[in-house]
Specification:
Distance between the termini: 48 Å
Radius of gyration: 19 Å
Helix content: 40-55%
Structural class: alpha+beta
Largest sheet: 3 strands, antiparallel
Strand order of the largest sheet: 2-1-3
Shape: elongated
Number of helices: 3
C-alpha cells in the first residue's frame, strides 16, 4: 500500500473517531428552560458539563427564539426563567 493512501486512511479513521467521541453523551447536566419576554414564550433544552453552563445555554437558546436584536436578547437573558426543570 502506498504511503499517501495509508496516511489518508489513518486521517479518516482519526476524524471518524473524533466525531463518534464528541457525539457521545458526555454531558453531566440537562435542563429545560422556559422564558417569557415581551409577551412571547419559548422553551428549550440544553446539556452541559456544569450547571451554570447548561442553564445559561438553555436561556440563551430560548431567548434567541423570542427576542429580536442584540438589545432584546441581552434583556431577555437577564430575566428569570418562567420554568426551569432539571432532567439530569
Amino acid at each position: 500500500m502506498k504511503k499517501p493512501v495509508l496516511i489518508g486512511i489513518i486521517f479518516v479513521a482519526v476524524v471518524l473517531g473524533a466525531i463518534i467521541y464528541s457525539s457521545m453523551n458526555l454531558s453531566k447536566y440537562r435542563v429545560e428552560v422556559c422564558m417569557t419576554f415581551n409577551g412571547n414564550s419559548s422553551c428549550r433544552t440544553a446539556s452541559g458539563k456544569t450547571q451554570d453552563e447548561t442553564l445559561q445555554t438553555a436561556i440563551t437558546n430560548a431567548c434567541a427564539d423570542i427576542a429580536g436584536g442584540v438589545t432584546d436578547s441581552i434583556a431577555c437573558e437577564r430575566t428569570a426563567p418562567t420554568k426551569e426543570t432539571w432532567l439530569k
